[in-house]
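[step 3/7] fold_predict: job queued, chain A
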Amino acid sequence: RDVFGTLAALIPSAGGILSNELRTHTEHVIVRLRDPYFRVMLTQLASKDWFEVPEEELLRLRGRLAIAFQFLEDKALSSYLRRMTDQACTRGDIGGLIIGGLTPTGMNIVQGYVDRTGDVQTAAILGAHASPAKFVDARAEWWLETYRSLLDGFKLFHHRVAFGVERGQILQDAVQNGDLAPFEWAPRQILIRCSYCSKPKNPVLDGVHRGRPTACPHCSCAPPRCSDCLVTLSIVPDGAREAELSHSHTAHQNTIDEAIIICQTCQHSGHASHILDWFFGEDGARSHDMCPVADCDCH
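[step 4/7] structure written:
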């Protein structure tokens, strides 16, 4: 009843000056109210100004921002946005990202959120979309590594792999859009060495290769051939093909089929799809127990 009585008294006075008694009574009513919308209405009617309304913390941030954008002057709006951003950083209010976005300032808000809640999963997901696709932030890399370790600790290896694949797609899209320079994301864990000179056969990333692209860049000797199809086994960078596969649903299967398998006993090798077909058969009916190379009795 106090609220409606106060509103009834304030609305006729909206165009005039409030008496001291009415102003004092309104302030007392506002303090006791818990409904943010009633508080906002009474505050605006009592002050005759919108400047205090966006400061109402019981109102959702998006609603306060809508009021600020609608009624505040440019100078007051800029000051208000800076103040809200600083407040979000201090309090760790992740809702402040609606102001800061995925920017270095937004990462400050996320850091405050992590310090307050310990929610490294949310921070890692946000960081994966920001760094290094938009800018480089060491904190984002730390959140990502911590989240990976967390998934490993819970033995959620499939979830970690899925997370890595999704982040790889984000980076790939950034490279294709020109937002990020091409780079080798994952360090190499396996090297193919030439069987003649024993030097690593690293693919040429800049596209400049002297001589045959399938030959060893050091001694120019040809690599071994597939034990089944006799086609030269080599990994030749093909930008056009990789760009085509990046938008294909069969990219994963294509990569597996053309992978190189090397026997650790006889050192014979071949394409993964051909070796699997040789030993297991296309339909499981035709299979072999011995190496496809003639005179090799390796099982």
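[step 5/7] annotate
The radius of gyration is 33 Å.
The mean pLDDT is 81.
exit 0
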